[in-house]
Amino acid sequence: MSAIILRNEIVHYEVLGRGRPLIFIHGWVGSWRYWIPAMQSASFSFRAYALDLWGFGDTAKCHEFYSLDQQLSLLDDFINELGIGRVALVGHGLGAIIAWLYAARNPSEVDRAVGISLPQGPEAINPRLRSASPADLADWLLGRSAATEPVRVEAPKTDQLAIQTTITGFQDFDLTRLTLNLSIPHLWVHGQNDPAVQAPDQQRIAALPDQAHFIPFEGSGHYPMLDETSKFNRLLHDMLSLDSGASPRQLQLKEEWKRRVR
Amino acid sequence: MAKILIAEDERDIRDLITFTLRFAGHEVVATSNGEEAYGAAQKILPDLILLDVRMPRMTGYETCEKLKSSEPTQHIPVVFLSAKGQESEVQTGIRSGALEYIVKPFAPDQLTERVHAILGTLGIK
Fold first, then answer.
1. Is some CB atom of chain A closer than 8 A to the CB atom of B103?
2. Does B114 lie at the interface with A, CB-CB under 8 angstroms?
3. Label partner for A80 (CA 20 to 30 A): which of A36, A54, A216, B73?
């Protein structure tokens, strides 16, 4: 287990591989752990970090740090403390919101971003996410398979208040305007059967700027990285392999593919 | 949870194997050559040892033979990590006392499945 102390509290993270930096940021249900297959895949070309946000996983449960602004500061402090340079961000749900906000505020620090299950606005988030316990949410969102076990195991570690506070705080942000003005290349991924976060409508997709691209995962729910792991990892690899500044518009889902140890 | 000792000289692969098995719930001790692996095995007495074949200082075979001739470690199952196309080396590995071999390249999840299967046959969960 790797950890750093920020604001006198423990922040848990894991890291794998060497190369350009990449940070995975988890969503409302789960922790860093469900990024393991993506980290394994990316580790051949990237230094892949995954952290637990305040109130999640093995990071400290400090109520005063649960706001979206504080979670954003956590990412900022993490990047600065570890001396991470221009970085690629991959976020899911809450993590996608944080990645988008961070990229909007620090465009020179972020090379590219991938958002999975990124809500268009507060109305796109199923109210059940705020009311149910983390364990119940895991039962609701996950199938029974070995792939989803990391979320199920880690969900009870979550402080429900951290989920509620970040969702409430999301109402203060205009993500639509922010997305339209996001200058870095960014990829928007959404599971077509996601019951927790509503997929963007066609109008919203059509209005995406040139440096943005939307790719639906038809066989996925809330966790495309677990439901269709190989396809997700292949797409992520293709996105991360683009030249810096290049538009992801040409990216598409390809045949399943597995990164192998030589 | 099992205690697994690995010996692999390529750092990226060693890190990936360590990460994969550690987060599959095992205690993992990683070494970068046969000599280190032999020394670590004497100290920690792991449940399973994964050895790369081609390593500096002491090859996987030499390490395996030495482990099998040492009383504290002779009962510990050894599995070789061997590159595809080196089947003759694999036979040498089996003769040196290894339980079986895992052919590289392999995907991380395949390694986990294989290790769990081996541990299952040994009655270790």
1. no
2. no
3. A36
* A44/B12 touch (CB, cutoff 8 Å), yes or no: yes
pLDDT-derived band at A256 (thresholds 50, 70, 90) equals: low
Q: How far apart are CA A76 and CA A68, in angstroms?
A: 12
CA angle at A41 for the pair A223 and B85, rounded to the nearest 5°? 135
Q: Where residue B99 sits, what CATH number does that domain have?
A: 3.40.50.2300
Answer whether B108 touches A (CB < 8 Å): yes
CA–CA gap between residue A261 and residue A119 (Å, rounded): 36
B60 domain-assigned: yes
- Tell me which chain B residues have a C-beta less than 8 angstroms from the C-beta of A44: 12
Does the pTM exceed 0.80?
A: yes
d(CA A187, CA A57): 26
Look up the ipTM and state it.
0.76
User: Strand B100-104 vs strand B78-83: parallel, antiparallel, or unpaired?
Assistant: parallel
